Predict the structure.
Amino acid sequence: MEEPATFRRATERDLEAIARIHVESWRATYRGIVPDTILEGLSVDDRLVAWQGWYVTPGAEIWLAARSASPVAFSRLVPAATDRPGRSDTAEITHLYALPAVVGGGIGHSLFSRMLARARQRGSDSLTLWVLEENQCARRFYEGSGMRSDGARQTRPEWLGEGVYEVRYDLELECSGT
């Protein structure tokens, strides 16, 4: 029987592990969606530099899942860059990634539930995220968690090349307060 995962807020010391999970997850998840040259060009060092910036974003929360004290998944919640009409405080999940070896074991659902609870505790009235349009596994995951695509579509991040799109998912929240 596998050891249950533990969950905690990430610290700056966790950023290298987060960068490693990010790279390994992308290479496994996006093969066939994102050009192989981009996936093979990903490096933990480059992701670490990015995470050092993302870590200090005002209002950002990064949560880490670990098994036997080894990080295996993470998620990041931030105030959304822009609120939408009729919404005053939207939270956004910018990242939710797990090592391929733990995908399907419930850790992603546990992290998502924590992000949902934190968004409510922060007083957010909705939760949003963007997912690659062709990532059917992730889309089913979010739909199974109650999120719905709102029809918005974009080509960000542009460095992924032409023909790679993201679609936005949204969930209205009832706030629980802080």
Notes: DSSP finds five helices and seven strands in the chain. The longest helix spans residues 15-29. The chain has a mean pLDDT of 92. The first strand starts at residue 6 and ends at 9.
